Amino acid sequence: IAHDATACSLDWQVGTGLACTGSYPIATIVSTTASDGYAMLDSDAYGGATGGTEIEDSWLTMASPVDLNGYPNVVVEFETQYRRYNSENPYIVVGIGDGSGNVVWPDLDPTTDITNMSNVFYAFPDWASQSGVTGNATANPEVVQVNISAALVGLTTTQLADIYIRFNWTGTWGYAWFVDDFKIVEQAANDIQAQSGWIFETNSNGAEYGRTPISHIGSSYEIGGTVLNFGVSDQTNVTLDVSFTGPTTITASESIDSLETDSTYTYSIMSSLDLEVGLYEGIYNFSSDDDTLGDDNILKRNFEITENVYSLDGIGVHPEEELETTSLGTNSFNGISDQFICANEYEFKSQDTISSVTALIAPNTLPNAEVIVYILDSTSYFNLDYGNALFESDTYYVSEDDTTNGFINIPTVDICNSPNGVILNSGKYFIALMPS
Predict the structure, then answer these.
(1) What is the pTM of this model?
(2) How many other CB atoms sit within 10 Å of the CB of residue 368?
(3) Contact present, 74 and 129 (Cβ < 8 Å)
(4) How far apart are alpha carbons 373 and 386 in whole angstroms?
(5) What are phi and psi of 214, to 5 degrees?
(6) What tens digit of pLDDT does each residue of 14-47 get?
(7) Which of 67, 88, 211, 393 has an alpha carbon 20 to 30 Å from 308's alpha carbon atom?
(8) CA distance 108 to 106
């Protein structure tokens, strides 16, 4: 356990019962063997104590080497709980020893170009280039696999017998990174892995609503997903089968002849659907001739058609999870100077009335916290012209009951001073909340 002393004084912790202690903590990992200890990097607590100005650079490294002679295809696997703030980059680094444990380690930061570093890998490659994107989070726990085979090419037998793995955290005042159940395994010959699955209305620009009022649904949908061939061998007859149960049954299927190793394919299936009110529970099953079933082949995704609730979140995206909700928040409530605003976009097919706005709140939200609700059209939203919002509420004060219930519900009588609610014509609108 160590850190770059010129950059920070933050270290990993290893033990049992460790939990985040910052002002915006994430949950402790519930890994398979959490009872016998795990590793934690608590950037939130450290950044809160130091003012969040340092580029943190902290690592956890194998104390003893592993001999990988005779294993050209190798995967690092671990269970993790991680949430990203906006520009951090956690790395997996392969240390190549000289036979005596001497390793030349790279100096990394969140913006390091690792393109030509064959021994450095992103722990979460899908998020690595998304600087400024807030709130990406794993499942708890999520199994991560990183193919490190490229780092082993061309090494001598002496070097292959002296290999170390390092978890290298870099970032400024992020959330936290938990790691447990670390393994080095031989890459499977046949391993089709589900990467994503979706269903959305074709004119929604890819927006997937967890709950949609029946008066605002369409009939044309895109059903699709992305699959990765993580195995050593090319795969044949790679298929996506989708099945939703609910008030009406939804099925879709598409196949491709082959998928090369370390390659992905994205399916897109256009479907005409006649949906009814109720919950739809979907299974996305990816397979090939040689890999027909596995824990990483399946995704579950739910959505609901409602009478009067419109919600962007509440869609399950992680394997073996029926419903996964995501969150976006701030722990800085400094009024207008904070400039933090959460907003969701909603498509209205026809004129309708909003009677209330509901938002989940974090468990550590304090009573009397102040919130303002805005309703904006696209022009005002994209121009950041909140002064010309269609509607702006009075200040809402979070109550003791709200903190107990875990959500706030603001009737629109408090937004437009009308008992009839906010009447909106067809079009796109943004519902925004801002600490006041």
Answers:
(1) 0.83
(2) 9
(3) no
(4) 11
(5) -65, -25
(6) 999 999 999 889 999 999 999 999 999 999 999 9
(7) 393
(8) 6
